[in-house]
Amino acid sequence: MEKIYTGKTKDVYKKQEGILVFHFKDDVTGADGVVDRGANSVLGQISGKGKMSLELTRHYFKLLESNNIPTHFISADISRGNMEVKNAQL
User: Fold this and answer.
1) What are the E-state strand segments in the chain?
2) Per-residue confidence at 52, pLDDT binned at 50, 70, 90?
3) CA–CA separation, 15 vs 80, rounded Å?
4) Which residues are bridge partners to 57 per DSSP?
């Protein structure tokens, strides 16, 4: 897979044409030693944070799908911290 973006809390890889993999990292954002999810810098890491974030994300995608709301979600591999999605077009 080719890494196409490195973010504060996720990395994005191109798996194949039209399919992306989001890797949820344990990085947390904040400033001056205080965790702040809206901050623009990585403060450190919390073990397991990426997998917990992915579990929550998967929950909301499944909730949308159960209400017949289409999404770009394909699958999630919690143990690896990865989510596969269709590449959305603007």
Assistant:
1) 2-6, 10-16, 19-24, 27-31, 34-35, 42-45, 73-77, 82-86
2) very high
3) 15
4) none
